[in-house]
Protein: T9SS type A sorting domain-containing protein
Organism: Eiseniibacteriota bacterium
Amino acid sequence: MRYGIPHSFAVSPCLPAAALLALLLVTAGPISSTALAGPNAGGALLVHALEGITYTTEHVYGYCHPRPDDPTAPRNEGAATITGRWVEDCSDVDSSFSDAATPQVWVVYASFTDDNYPSLAGVEFGIEYSPGLRLLEWGSCADFEASTANWPASGSGTIVVWVGEHEERLVPAYWFAGYAPSSPFEEQEGLHFSVTPHPINGGHFADRSPAPVLDDIALYGTLGFGQPGTAPCPSVDTYVIRADGSGDFPTIQDALSIAAPTSVIELEDGVFSGEGNRDLKFNFTSFTLKSISGDPERCVIDCGGSQTEQHRGIRFDPGTRASRVEGIGFRNGYSGSQLGIATQAKGGAILANGGHLTLSNCVFEDCATDREGGAIAGSGFPLVIEDCAFRRCVAKGGAAGALEIGGNAKLVLRRTEFTDNRVEHPLNGHDDGGAIRVVTGNLVVEDCVFQGNRANRGGAAYLLSVDAQVSGTTWSDNHALAGGSVYMAQNQVRFDHCTFVENGAIRGGSIFVDVYPSELSVDSSILAFGPEGDAIWCGGANVSVRRSDIYGNAGGDWVGCIEPLLGTGENIQRDPLFCDLEGGVFTLDSRSPCALNATSERPTPMGSQPVGCGPSVRGVVPEVLRGDLARAVTESSAESRFGFVRITPNPASRDMSVRFSAPSLHGAELIVLDPTGRRVQRLVATRDATPGEFVATWDGRDAKGRDVPSGAYFIRLSAGEKNVTQRVSILR
């Protein structure tokens, strides 16, 4: 006998879950795949004993929402009164009865973690119980039900659906009444009642989104009679995934589909590829996806995409909560029309259209798109990118070789490299942002490097209707038709302590400012040696330049709208004296006019790089470093020909390979220094050695075996009076 079911249906055993829920969720569109982790991910289905309730047929809906025997508690008409334990959260669930000879009542609850933002509209589950247990009555706590023909026999299943949605952490879904009449209780060993996956479709929670997402029920409870049952509360866990499929789950997506929000999914080193390890989907959830080693060169998601077979790494859908990706490399992603409509065809490695995403210590290589964002594309959400690298990414049919963000988003870039990214558009003059394009919103760029990027407008960056703050950033060898490094329109942009070197364009070799109402402020920066175009081109915009050096640009330095600013505000036009311009080392010689004008009020030099080309690290690097991903620091261009030091990976989290060579290794020493010049570790010491190439390893520890903290360090090869030094960043 059933109670409390306004609408019920028999279920064909051939009817799939998606079709059934589509029938019941009458306002919904197409059902989403269970591979999409949704707002109910990681939830549990538990059985609670209503100890102390006297069973009666008078309570129609009351068993779904029993009230405590408390005169101050809210009253629910027709609700049963509990004299025992009152359920407020998962920890209150009672999973056993002390008596089975008299009729008892129990309730099935959907339970979620405090980190969930549940949107529960339906539950699909089965039941299994001991032969000695007899069910007297049962009823749904929802508005619709569709059961298998033999429900509620042991091994049968049902689906219940609400018209609205539930956002509580504990939601009653079903109730049962029963007892064990046949023999004394003490003789019925193992008497139990369990919730299980649906016998046809498996166990799922459904949300109330336009395309409902089915989340796998992660945990199931058991009710014991005269013995303990189980009530496994959902929890935040850490799962380890291996590339060979031998981890806690076979694939990354398997873990994403079942893990509770805020869980951590750790990847061991290896190359993750194929179905389940690419085209990953975060939906309404909050996860951390990270490598165990922290080395994006050794832990890689290879998307295996191409123009004819398109695959990306991850898609973050609207409603995704704060998520984090750390220490992972992404390569060979390719997005286009095969992956969806125009807004879904962007982002070769990552597409993010919602939530709050942080990327830390990741590398994106050789990714491409037929649309916008060779590596990453997104709209309308906060995105933080720290200590990452984007290399050789391409937008073949739109804009933004590496990264495109729009829709009033906030983008923060810190200590990140953009190298050799480009845009290839068939319509000449309409490809924007060789590395990044930001359209509307806020942009913060700190201590980054943009090198060798190409586009028609904005060789490195295209900014439209953006409020931007850019500091400590180096722009070199970027090229375009307009704005060799930066093309900006209708923006308010400030550059502080930046270095622009060897960037070129027909107009605006370094910066192109489009028409009013753009506002550009350049402070304490260097714009030098552009092979083409004037340093700054401005079309009627408000431009302010202070305490900056503009020098050696082929199309003119202080020309056009900035001509009146030379000689004011401490502005100069002199050779900045980079330590090794040809070698790409933009640190400043101690005689540089950009260093000599430092005062007590403004103690830092112009530009993004430190002062010093000396033979030792002490005195070369200021106490406050700018740009952990800056180029290598060497003692001078002449002495640098003494030998070389190459470090891979760089940045590194722990083990790194140090390849070095010099014509003479008599008395050679390879040591690690901190920024103050203090020796941290000695890697190699020789009295004599045959010249050649050698390889040493540094494990990121000091001489006492302790892990060094994150930051910049220097590995120096010296022999006699000659030495060469290479900078390395440690990221923990």
